[in-house]
Amino acid sequence: MGCGTWAWGNRLLWGYDESMDNQLQAVFNLCVSNVVTLFDTGDSYGTGRLNGRSELLLGRFSQEYQGSGKENICIATKLAAYPWRLTRSSMVSACKASAQRLGKNVDLVQMHWSTANYAPWQEGQLLDGLADLYEQGLVKGVGLSNYGPKRLKRVQQKFAERGVPITTLQVQYSLLSTYPVTQLGIKEVCDELGIRLIAYSPLALGILTGKYSEKGSLPKGIRGLLFRQLLPGIRPLLACLQEIAQSNNKTMSQVAINWCICKGSIPIPGAKTIEQAKDNIGALGWQLNGSEIAELDRAAASTDKKMVQNIFQTK
Ligand SMILES: NC(=O)c1ccc[n+]([C@@H]2O[C@H](COP(=O)([O-])OP(=O)(O)OC[C@H]3O[C@@H](n4cnc5c(N)ncnc54)[C@H](OP(=O)(O)O)[C@@H]3O)[C@@H](O)[C@H]2O)c1
User: What angle do CA 203, 78, 142 make, to 5 degrees?
Assistant: First the structure.
């Protein structure tokens, strides 16, 4: 199962409505034709009336796509550890439901989060179900999400006993969320176990693009509140990003995404428009140099405010 160096996350959050579907399809087409062929989704993406919408759309987009790279499209979905999912067979059924929405088998199935922080007794069955999916040939690969090194090692051991490899682990990783790597040491553990690290929210929900500012516009809702709190404390980081972007003739988004690639992860930025997707694709095909990476690392380490961690992230 191939994974590129860049992928597209399709969360359908932050202002999504169905009138955006055509532009999302154009984003999808642009990605695949530019060799961005890994698509991350989840069975919980598109809530309420739009339940499962992200998977439905990705299934439709991949079937309708007729350009080059079609054979390399890889759909990675995440199965939620809902409180009512209690048995291993519930995971198998959930994956079959995702496959139905996608119109084909899931390529990479991921456990969306660990229940270790609040219902540790629930997790064993769900993980067994994930491994069952691999054994039954219903998926090509298995991954995890929001796991820290201790839990990851335990699951890896458990899966190894059944001959089931873990292909990927995704965590919130960006210049504003270095915690999983710098504090938990997750990258070393992934390398040791041969697991590819996926960086979700690599633009820190959009704040690292530089388009939001203290005196300018802020996004609506909870993101706006969060950004208002973060912006004063991250001025030096944004200034550093901007300076490096200018000297490379790149945008701040491209630098933020390229930094994730330079750290050995696969970033999955969300893009809502063709312009954003084109911009993000420009993060490929070049590399920040060592001193630029060190400068960004220093700026990231010295910010007094960081992105809030996902409550499900385990140690
Ligand atoms: N495993 C998990 O628990 C988990 C959790 C979160 C996310 N994820 C995955 O990671 C993916 C991406 O994360 P995310 O959407 O949370 O955060 P992100 O990629 O850091 O930020 C995406 C947002 O930034 C803005 N943006 C993106 N590219 C831009 C550009 N070039 N210029 C200007 N603005 C740009 C867009 O929002 P605006 O235009 O509204 O500013 C976009 O929705 C998700 O789709 C999902 O697949 C996984």
Answer: 110
17: CB partners within 8 A, 6+ apart: none
In tens, the pLDDT along 254-294 reads 999 999 999 999 999 999 999 999 999 999 999 999 999 99
7-301, superfamily in CATH? NADP-dependent oxidoreductase domain (3.20.20.100)
Check pLDDT > 90 for residue 227.
yes
Question: Would you say 173 and 234 are in contact if contact means Cβ atoms under 8 Å apart?
Answer: no
Mean pLDDT of 13-23: 82
Residue of 45, 134, 147, 179 marked catalytic: 45
Residues in the chain: 315
| Cα–Cα distance measured from residue 113 to residue 79, given in angstroms and rounded to the nearest whole number | 8
Domain spans in the chain, listed from the N-terminal domain onward:
7-301
Cα 121 to ligand 1 centroid, rounded to whole Å:
32
Residue to mutate, 17, 39, 203, 220, ligand 1, most ligand atoms under 8 Å from C-beta? 203
Q: Name the residue of 272, 306, 307, 312 to mutate for ligand 1: max ligand atoms within 8 A of Cβ.
A: 272
Q: Is the pLDDT reported for residue 6 higher than 70?
A: no
CA of 122 to the centre of ligand 1 (A): 29
- Is 134 an annotated catalytic residue? no
**Gyration radius of the chain's alpha carbons:** 19
Q: Across all residues in the chain, what is the average pLDDT?
A: 94
Q: Which residues contact 237 (CB under 8 A, 6 or more apart)?
A: 175, 176, 296, 299, 300, 302, 303
Distance CA 245, CA 270 (A): 20
150 CA from centroid of ligand 1 (Å)? 27
Q: Is the pLDDT score of 114 beyond 70?
A: yes
What pTM did the predictor assign? 0.96
Strand runs (DSSP E) across 184-225, as ranges?
Answer: 196-200
Identify the band that residue 13 occupies on the pLDDT scale cut at 50, 70 and 90.
Answer: low
